[in-house]
Design a protein that fits this description.
It contains 14 helices and 18 strands. With 400 residues, it is an alpha/beta fold. It folds into two domains: 133 residues, Rossmann fold, CATH 3.40.50.720; 201 residues, Dihydrodipicolinate Reductase, domain 2. The strands form three sheets. Strands 7, 8, 9, 10, 11, 12, 15, 16 and 18 form a nine-stranded mixed beta sheet that branches. It has a seven-stranded parallel beta sheet with strand order 3-2-1-4-5-6-17, with helices on both faces. Helix 1 crosses helix 13 and helix 13 crosses helix 14. The chain is globular and about 55 Å long. Bound molecules: NADPH dihydro-nicotinamide-adenine-dinucleotide phosphate. NADPH dihydro-nicotinamide-adenine-dinucleotide phosphate binds next to helix 1. The site of NADPH dihydro-nicotinamide-adenine-dinucleotide phosphate has 33 residues, from helix 1.
Length: 400
């Protein structure tokens, strides 16, 4: 029996609220808090049981601490934006509450995708006897757990890791991002980076690409090398990995729009002056683009996110592919969200469940690959994100 506060009432917050509400034995009491309380109330009205809502500006550490002290939850599930991570971690420490998020802290003024700020909280969480679980979404999140699972059960050592994220969904809009546009575009327009023999190699934004043949009828798609934050933690915790890369699919249409927007400066996070006021072009663009939550009823097709790991087992080289297929329309039928929010929100709920059931426990700051993958993998199968592992015996196209 436990009480959680979910902070953030966007696409992901809505899925987390639905999935927690479906498990009253674990999530006995739920409070949904966000900057705009009306969004919390709209989500609450759709849930199978009553949940409390609250207004909170999570950038305000004192206000968040006061809310936590008043509500006394066992855990905060932070699904606001990456900018709020450190403020919410501070409030959790001040109020003596455990913490979970789905994305690394980002300083608002520069796109970094680094864990250093949150890893610096290690001593504070350890000495407070509290746990912080970082990156419990799909990628990061499930991809870290997949890697740990392959290492535990299939390979003695992983030498080459490719994380491949495919969204084969179609929302019928000329241009839209399927999660927070600001975060999404920051990620996609940043330089690519991958781990190779103990160092980071940099590429231009989406410079390196190739075709990959996806399962479940999705077929061949162009995948683009990007930097993604789980590469940093996975290569830190599995130092045997010689090369680790992250790839994502993008449609030609998406890339064409992005190129034009980039060329005219609309994706920049440098402030510009407009009619006497400073604005950030990317934030202005976000205001013009469709709200990702509005894409739910429109999106058809599947996502396929997984890891290909090549390494050795008993001295023999082996390659395994572990992945999940998720259907946008099935997600919408269950929780009124498309698969991108669903594939993030379900692992956030499961990470929270692991902590509340003490299957994952320990003071300090944790990344997902550091914890026992088995109970989490079991719950993925139970709560909507079934996975499979296949051995790949032929060339996959990812060897070089
Ligand atoms: P949305 O933009 O849809 O929702 C963000 C929510 O956070 C909104 O309700 C917003 O409030 C709220 N919020 C923003 N600032 C504050 C603040 N200062 N105080 C309180 N609430 C605030 O984003 P998503 O739901 O798509 O994404 C949520 C998180 O999930 C992000 O951190 C994102 O990076 C992460 N994510 C992780 C993935 C993974 O696989 N690991 C994949 C996809 C997303 P308001 O309504 O007032 O704007």
């Amino acid at each position: 029996m436990a009480k959680v506060i979910i902070i953030g009432a966007g696409g992901v917050g809505s899925v987390v609220a639905h999935k927690c509400a479906q498990l009253p034995d674990v999530f006995n009491e739920i409070v949904l808090a966000s900057r705009t309380e009306s969004k919390c109330k709209a989500i609450a009205a759709d849930l199978p049981r009553p949940v409390k809502t609250a207004q909170i500006d999570a950038d305000d550490v004192a206000a968040t601490t006061a809310l936590l002290k008043a509500e006394q939850p066992d855990l905060v599930i932070n699904v606001a934006l990456p900018y709020q991570d450190l403020a919410i971690m501070d409030a959790c420490l001040a109020a003596g509450v455990d913490y979970l998020d789905t994305a690394n802290y980002e300083p608002p003024e520069e796109a970094k995708f680094e864990y250093k700020w949150q890893w610096a909280y290690q001593d504070k969480f350890t000495s407070a006897g509290r746990m912080a679980l970082l990156g419990s979404g799909f990628d990061p999140g499930v991809t870290n757990v997949y890697t740990a699972y392959l290492k535990k059960h299939y390979l003695d050592e992983i030498h080459y890791l490719d994380i491949i994220d495919c969204n084969d969904g179609d929302h019928g809009q000329p241009f839209a991002t399927n999660f927070n546009p600001e975060i999404n575009i920051r990620e996609v327009t940043a330089n690519g980076r991958y781990w190779s023999n103990g160092d980071w190699q940099e590429t231009g934004p989406l410079e390196e690409n190739r075709s990959f043949d996806f399962p479940a009828g999705i077929g061949p798609k162009q995948i683009y090398l990007m930097y993604h934050e789980e590469l940093e933690s996975i290569t830190k915790h599995l130092p045997e990995i010689k090369r680790a890369r992250f790839w994502m699919t993008f449609s030609d249409n998406y890339l064409k729009h992005l190129e034009v927007l980039g060329n005219i400066g609309m994706t920049s996070i440098e402030p510009v002056e407009f009619e006497g006021k400073e604005i950030i072009p990317l934030q202005f663009l976000k205001a013009l683009l469709p709200d990702p939550a509005s894409l739910g009823p429109l999106t058809k097709g599947k996502t396929c996110i997984g890891c290909i790991a090549r390494g050795v087992k008993d001295g023999v080289e082996k390659t395994y592919y572990i992945y999940n297929i998720c259907d946008h329309e099935e997600c919408y039928a269950e929780v009124k969200s498309q698969a991108i929010s669903y594939t993030t929100g379900v692992p956030a709920m499961i990470g929270a469940k692991m902590m509340l059931e003490r299957k994952w426990a320990g003071a300090g700051v944790w990344n997902m690959e550091q914890l026992d993958p088995d109970p989490f993998m079991e719950d993925l199968n139970k709560y909507g994100l079934p996975w499979q592992v296949v051995e790949l015996n032929e060339q996959t196209g990812m060897e070089d």
